[in-house]
Design goal:
Elements lengths: L7 E7 L3 H13 L5 E5 L8 H4 L15 E5 L12 E5 L18 H6 L7 H11 E3 L14 E3 L8 H11 L4 E2 L11 E4 L14 H6 L8 E5 L1 E9 L2 E9 L12 E11 L2 H11 L2 E2 L1 H6 L6 E2 L14 E9 L7 H4 L3 H14 L11 E5 L3 H7 L1 H11 L8 E6 L15 E8 L7 E6 L5 E6 L9 H16 L4 E4 L33 H14 L1 E2 L30 E3 L14 H19 L19
Parallel strand pairs: 1-2, 1-12, 2-9, 5-6, 7-8, 12-23, 13-14
Antiparallel strand pairs: 3-4, 8-16, 10-11, 11-12, 15-18, 15-21, 15-22, 16-17, 17-18, 19-20
Helix pairs in contact: 1-15, 4-15, 13-14
Length: about 625
């Protein structure tokens, strides 16, 4: 989609992530005569193995990765003085091209809680269905069966998920359900579907299914390696953008600025970090922040960069365990064992049915505590429970799940064998952060990023409970062979909780481990040391009333200017209890309808499918 440079387009997208691909792709499909430009800082993902082969997703988290931006936060005493790192995608398709592909959807009530006209669940459920082709089960009323994004179960099952569910429904005394992503069901164990095409075994991402599949349309242009510096205004009307070659993905290229014009609309779609930065560089934000960065203020909008909930992310901890030698895990692939890679590649090329089509996540529970569990969690969390969760039975406190393999920071130092990882992440933490631009003394731009992780004392409690409960579940799974001591809490010598390798599981009816006050301190310290982002950053250009620190209205218009919208996860005014890919797709479909309506395009007469993407020949 690289073509001769044009200086003016109808619509320009500042960012080429998930939501931008959806909006641009839909508009191009509905009106191919629209001239649309997508400016993306990262590089192409078209048919590239790292992006279409599901098992490769951990590679994007490597410190040397150029497909992610590593945003360094300010040190926090709540994290034992640690400076958190929050990654965000830096490639075409954004998070949809690099994420773990787990299929989760928020409860419908989350969208009603946004209190935004036109964004109620009754208006959005048809769009949730329009997005997807749900291959898991037929005739489910809240799922779609003709959309561009494929959702499937793994053809190649990993046995640990069945063990996890079996122990969960017996020892943990929870029910089982085939579908806990029906917008209301939670607190039951279930299989975990994936954003993977069940036929081809390829990742199902926004880039291939909304943009790359329209390569025949010369009016839809995608320029990669371009960093948008700011929006250009005339009398507070957005008329274009200024961009340079991206200093990361095009480090050797000329860094001079180029301006392109937009005759109809500019859409900022650079994510929870990138979108507020573009607005602030354009003079839209709080006076004090702009002044210290030598930016002339155009619009006083102090909500820009605030309400960070990714910063009110979802807080996750990954904990490794030893698995039996006979267990099937992702470890040989993630350690690049050549014979295993070649065997699975050959099978994947034939029919998509191999571990190449796996992400290692086959089972989960959207967990709510029962009365006994709630009592053990103490008064700090109980007040949060009564205030927010108790009367909202569709909202889970956390997701507990098994990762069938280990791809964490100790990968190179642990011996090659089979591992599992327990992981638990909270869905509605209270703490909120912020992200703003700043200037260093040498004039270079950076970010002033306060993650806010665990600032509210209630947020750590479910994580501490999650460590204990997941350990009890894993101890009872037949293929369990102990804890990896190097990445568990450092319990005092002589404690019953000391971690070690073992020869097998405990009996299903064995008593739980008893933790002393010192043990609890060790768990708390461990979680504060290890807790990290789930890469679900949102809320920094919130869709709220301007007086409530809102940045955009319900039509996604930036307050105080015209012809400028924001469309990405940064507009979410409150958290959503889900991995956010599903919500980013949803925002994209809604934004496309809003823009089409304003441009007089009758999208109702258009096809509901964006077609198929080209098959890889890897």
């Amino acid at each position: 989609m690289s073509r001769p440079v044009t200086s003016e387009f109808d619509i320009i997208f500042a960012g080429g992530g998930t939501t931008a691909c959806v909006v641009a792709g839909r508009l191009a499909e509905w009106n191919p005569s629209l001239s649309i430009l997508i400016l993306e800082g990262g590089q192409h993902t078209l048919n590239q193995a790292a992006h279409v082969q599901p098992y490769r997703f951990p590679s994007h988290m490597a410190p040397t990765s150029t497909t992610m931006t590593f945003n360094l936060g300010n040190p926090s005493p709540r994290l034992n003085g640690r400076a958190p790192i929050v990654q965000c995608a830096h490639c075409v398709g954004g998070g949809s091209s690099v994420n773990a592909m787990v299929y989760t959807r928020a409860p419908a009530s989350d969208f009603d809680d946004w209190e935004a006209d036109g964004w109620e669940s009754k208006s959005l459920i048809p769009l949730m269905k329009k997005v997807e082709t749900y291959e898991v089960q037929p005739d489910r009323p809240t799922h779609g069966y003709s959309g561009p994004i494929k959702v499937s179960s793994a053809k190649f099952k990993l046995g640990a998920s069945e063990e996890f569910i079996r122990v969960g429904t017996t020892y943990h005394k929870r029910q089982y359900a085939e579908d806990t992503d029906d917008l209301e069901t939670c607190n039951t164990y279930s299989p975990w579907a994936k954003y993977v095409d069940g036929t081809t075994g390829r990742r199902s991402d926004a880039a291939h299914h909304y943009v790359y599949n329209q390569a025949h349309n010369a009016n839809l242009q995608l320029w990669v390696g371009k960093r948008v510096k700011r929006v250009i205004f005339q009398d507070k009307r957005a008329v274009g953008v200024e961009f340079t070659n991206d200093p990361v993905s095009c480090s050797d290229a000329d860094q001079s600025s180029i301006i392109v014009r937009a005759s109809k609309l500019v859409v900022v779609s650079a994510g929870a970090f990138g979108s507020p930065a573009i607005l602030e560089r354009s003079g839209i934000g709080a006076e004090a922040i702009l002044k210290r960065c030598n930016v002339q203020q155009l619009v006083d909008l102090p909500g820009v960069g605030e309400n960070f909930r990714g910063l009110r992310d979802h807080n996750v901890v990954f904990v490794p365990y030893f698995a039996a030698d006979e267990a099937i895990t992702m470890d040989p692939l993630w350690r690049s064992k050549e014979s295993v890679v070649q065997e699975n590649l050959a099978q994947w090329n034939i029919n998509g049915n191999s571990l190449f089509a796996q992400n290692g996540n086959d089972a989960k529970i959207k967990w709510r505590p029962d009365d006994d569990e709630l009592n053990t969690m103490g008064s700090t969390f109980q007040s949060r429970w009564k205030e927010f969760f108790q009367s909202r039975s569709d909202k889970a406190v956390a997701i507990f799940a098994i990762h069938e393999g280990y791809a964490g920071p100790l990968l190179s130092s642990l011996p090659p064998r089979n591992y599992w990882s327990a992981f638990y992440y909270t869905l509605y933490p209270v703490s909120v952060g912020s992200v703003h631009m700043k200037l260093y003394k040498n004039g270079q731009e950076g970010i002033d990023f306060n993650a806010g992780f665990l600032d509210d004392p209630s947020d750590i409690v479910p994580l501490n409970f999650g460590y204990k409960k997941m350990r009890e579940i894993f101890r009872r799974m037949p293929s369990y062979r102990g804890e990896v001591p190097a990445d568990h809490p450092c319990f005092p010598e002589g404690s019953a909780a000391v971690c070690r390798e073992t020869t097998g599981p405990v009996d299903l009816n064995a008593p739980d481990l008893i933790y002393t006050a010192e043990d609890d301190e060790a768990i708390d310290r461990y979680n504060r040391d290890r807790m990290q982002t789930t890469w679900h950053s949102l809320g920094t250009c919130a869709m709220k009333p301007r007086v409530d620190q809102g940045v955009v209205d319900t039509r996604l218009n930036v307050y105080g200017v015209t012809n400028l919208k924001v469309a990405d996860m940064s507009i979410a005014p409150k958290n959503v209890g889900t991995n956010t890919y599903s919500t980013a797709l949803l925002i994209g479909e809604k934004a496309a309808m809003i823009i089409a309506d304003e441009l007089g395009i009758d999208y109702r007469l258009c096809s509901e499918s964006s077609g198929e993407s080209p098959r890889s020949h890897l």
